[in-house]
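Our consortium's second objective concerns turning raw sequence data into structural hypotheses that experimental partners can test. To show how far this objective has progressed, the report includes one record in full. It was chosen at random from the queue rather than selected for favorable results. The single chain below, 84 residues long, was entered without modification.
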Amino acid sequence: MGSKLRALALSRARDKAMILRAIFWMTVVALLAPPGFRSSSAGCDHAACSRGAELFERIRESGLHSLTQVRADIEAAERARSRG
């Protein structure tokens, strides 16, 4: 019985960590990608501004990729939990 309780506690701790990761990446994406932003519409004519917009876009894409991974982790944990 003790091992089941430890496994349950560990599972809950992992679930909390995944939720915190999800919240973190949602916040990062929300802060870095305001609605309607597109690097091509930034109005930059200078090379430095253009490079900055490209960097911003790469950071945004990285955040979205991480958020997608967190979502998949949460869904997998929910499926595992529902199975048994």
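The partners drew two points from this record. Residues 19 and 49 are 35 Å apart (CA to CA). The helical segments are 2-32, 47-83. Both points have been shared with the crystallography group to help prioritize constructs.
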